[in-house]
Amino acid sequence: MGRFAREPDTAERRSFVGKSFDYLLPMTPAEFKRKWARYSGKETSAYQEHFNDLCALLGQPTPATADPTGNESFCFQKRVVKDEELFALEESNRVAEKSETERERGFADVWKRGCFAWEYKGKKKNLDAAYQQLLRYRESLLNPPLLVVCDFDRYIVRTNFNGTVQETHEFTSANIDGPQMLHLLRAVFTAPEFLKPQRTTDEVTEKLAQQIGEVARSLQQRESVELIDARSRRELAVAQRKNLRIARFLNRIVFCFFAEDTGLLPKNVVTDIFKTGVDDPAHFAEVLEDLFQKMAKGGTFGPQKIRHFNGHLFEEATVFELTEPEISKLAVAGQAQNENRQERWEPHERSAEGICVRGGRP
Known about the structure:
By secondary structure, this protein is α+β, with helices and mostly antiparallel strands. It folds into two domains: 10-195, Alpha-Beta Complex (tt1808, chain A), CATH 3.90.1570; 201-358, no CATH class. It contains 13 helices and ten strands. It has helices at 10-17, 29-38, 43-58, 63-66, 127-137, 179-190, 201-223, 225-229, 233-261, 269-277, 281-297, 324-339, 346-351, and strands spanning 74-81, 105-112, 116-120, 146-150, 154-159, 168-172, 299-301, 304-306, 308-309, 357-358. The strands form three sheets. A six-stranded mixed β-sheet has the order 1-2-3-4-5-6, with helices on both faces. It has a two-stranded antiparallel ribbon with strand order 7-8. Strand 4 and strand 5 (154-159) form a beta hairpin. Helix 7 (201-223) packs antiparallel against helix 9.
């Protein structure tokens, strides 16, 4: 579980922890856990009752009490207009342009202005799907600082502050009565700034670029000896083309991390290649080349279906055999991108305009 960016001082704690239970009958942690451990019904049948019980546990007003309008600041079923998809999947290779009235509409399960958007799923359902819904809703919900998903037992709180590295806090109903969990939940409701990450995206991006740059220099030193030894314009041109192929090879790797992270490639398909590749660089090169080839035309990669990526990036599938340290650095770079999910892809989204995906998207 993520940690607080900073611990509130005593006065600050009183401002958001010492709320009275005047709004509804208080519920003890034991009562809350006992009631919801037994529940196995549908999400739609009980999520509002679950959330109201959580309010009682924390001493917070329910949405209906705090916002009698049912829409302005704290409510269930907040109507939203979903964001446009990153890529249009139509054969035209263009993003579909729709008027606001034509855009797809939906509802956020719970929303509190300036604090959070909250999405429920049934027990043991896919909370990643709930998070993807919130990502599509967040602009319409005024970009709340926290995005929360819950399946009546598991809770995942993700930060959504602009310009910062995203942090994730996870816990279950079993430990909801722990002091740190209660402070976390009360901060979600009344003081989200206490969960604001301290690292900025610029810091992470700089570290990411540094690691990829180190791999590029190492690869060029090893593979481009011809550039130093070139004795004619022809030899120089050959060496320069090899440098260009190295750059495009690394661009393909960075794009693969992007595609995995945004759901255009199956979850962890790239991450797993790098994790296992450290122990066998030769096999790593073969597997990565196979993935590039599948992305160029579409096809099957192990048990996974790979979509066809249009454009020129995967027209060639050249893979340079990397050393163990180089693979490790790229694996760390990929992990850094996973941690820095919120802001890091904007430049890649703009540069990816020429790469369209053929086929359906989950």
